[in-house]
Amino acid sequence: MSAAGFDYVIIGGGSAGCVMANRLSEDANARILLLEAGGKDWHPLIHMPVGFAKMTTGPHTWGFKTAPQKHANNREIPYAQARVIGGGSSINAEVFTRGAPEDYDRWAHEEGCDGWAFKDIQQYFLKSEGNGRMADVWHGTDGPLGVSDLPDPQPMTRAFVQSCQQAGIPYSHDFNGERQAGCGVYQTTTKGYRRCSAAVGYLKPALKRKNLTVETGCMVKRITFEGNRATGVDYFNGKERKHARATSEVLVTSGAIGTPKIMMLSGVGPAAHLRAHNIDVVHDLPGVGENLNDHFGIDIVGELTGHYSLDKYNKPHWAAWAGLQYLMFRSGPITSNVVEGGAFWHSDDLSGLPDLQFHFLAGAGAEAGVPGVTPGASGITLNSYAVRPKSRGTVRLRSGDPADMPIVDPNFLAEPDDLKVGVEGVKLSREIFSQPALQKHLRAIRFPDDGVKTQKELEDYARQYGRTSYHPTCTCKMGTDDMAVVGTDLRVHGLDGIRICDSSVMPSLIGSNTNAPTIMIAEKASDLVRGNR
């Protein structure tokens, strides 16, 4: 077994890992190793904004399915998680939202995470953001994460935004400003008409630094410990078994599924569960793998009277034309992220924060598990979910073999309120589709069809067709209670030389997409590691 020494070993080259690799390698005296299970982001579809539609399945994902969902007809739901450098930021829909300030104030004031209120973390959002349009107290302009407007939103996206307004939802020019509520066209993590993943924005500029080593195709076997101190990582790169020593810290950034798996394989987690898989217990930490919190999205699909959406480009000659247009002029449908429009709105009471988020897709059948329309026709899709779901699930080991997939159980719809709000989202989605701006283009709502009318029928529909929205969080949560895994400095409780610095440390799910908040966490983590905060 070969061995090498570094100051910091970062496990996971997703959004958080790319940020940490960049920021820590700014210190020329620090030796950094970044380990990633997936491959390089060589595939051209990764870098084309529209490529998202091809990325929710295939070789750049782990191919997870959930455990049978007790409250969703015992379905095993496809659970797309990235397996490529850049992680979710390399395959997601590029939607740039970061939640309401109240989400982070809840972390600080109700969930034991002092120092993580919005006033404390806003600087890291600004530091990360390179916004091409907005420059005010809410937005940064010089950060590595490129953020831009869609150059030419699809006609159906424009009609969607008008329909939202006709349904009583006000227009918003900025979902990340003072007011979250409203409808509009999402800004995206794109720059120069290409995806700006964390690998592109953060890691690529840092690769020229001699103190940064990046290895892809690595399977971590375990984190090694001497007593309660983490000392390094055992891993395989291909068939070669290797060990990397970490003289300062091991930094775990493998996401809300990968991070608890690695911790448990390393002997850190619920002791009884570890012993059941013949894993020696280094530290009994019952919160590892608990508290899994994800958005449960429910789609409706409409069929159009003509070829007005991106589905037009499923035909070979139109696809060829789109490719030519993009190559020659950096314009046309390939500059679309598919999930162009959206809204934050209320299921009932208008006085509080929005409790629903909507994603409008200028096409049908673009995501795994979501039906399309009549063959040869074009369609549109509207997805909605309760933004602050109460249901909690788990990540557990299937065995002590690192090659085995973990058991992922989001426990969707375990709490009745999640189903109630989710059904209200479907009702409001139908109402939006019934407004004049969209209705004049719609032949019919195909999914759900007219036979789904009553409250029970809508609830049955949600249980049968709802799915993940790709936002798993909270499985190694930050805090001070008995189920907390890390403190506010992200150090693992009861251990030395190890921190967790990714979406798994969120104490609760924020009310929006999760990529920008994950990058924020890694920005702050980098300062914590370097002693700047």
Topology of helices and strands:
Blueprint: E1 2-11, H1 15-25, E2 32-35, H2 44-47, E3 64-65, E4 78-79, H3 88-91, H4 101-110, H5 118-128, E5 129-131, E6 145-147, H6 155-166, E7 182-185, E8 190-191, E9 194-195, H7 198-206, E10 212-215, E11 218-226, E12 229-237, E13 240-252, H8 255-265, E14 268-269, H9 271-276, E15 283-284, E16 296-304, H10 316-329, E17 339-345, E18 356-361, E19 379-386, E20 394-396, E21 407-409, H11 416-433, H12 436-439, E22 442-447, H13 455-465, E23 467-468, E24 498-500, H14 515-530
Parallel strand pairs: 1-2, 1-13, 2-10, 5-6, 13-24, 14-15
Antiparallel strand pairs: 3-4, 7-17, 8-9, 11-12, 12-13, 16-19, 16-22, 16-23, 17-18, 18-19, 20-21
Helix pairs in contact: 1-7, 1-14, 5-14, 11-13
Molecular structure report:
By secondary structure, the chain is an alpha/beta fold. The protein has 2 domains: 1-145 and 188-294 and 394-400 and 472-533, FAD/NAD(P)-binding domain; 151-185 and 296-386 and 413-465, Cholesterol Oxidase, domain 2 (2-Layer Sandwich). Helix content is 26%, strand content 22%. Strands 1, 2, 10, 11, 12, 13 and 24 form a 7-stranded mixed β-sheet that branches. Strands 7, 16, 17, 18, 19, 22 and 23 form a 7-stranded antiparallel β-sheet that branches. A two-stranded antiparallel sheet has the order 3-4. The longest helix is centred in the C-terminal third of the chain and has 18 residues, at 416-433. The radius of gyration is 22 Å and the shape is globular. The chain starts with a strand and ends with a helix.
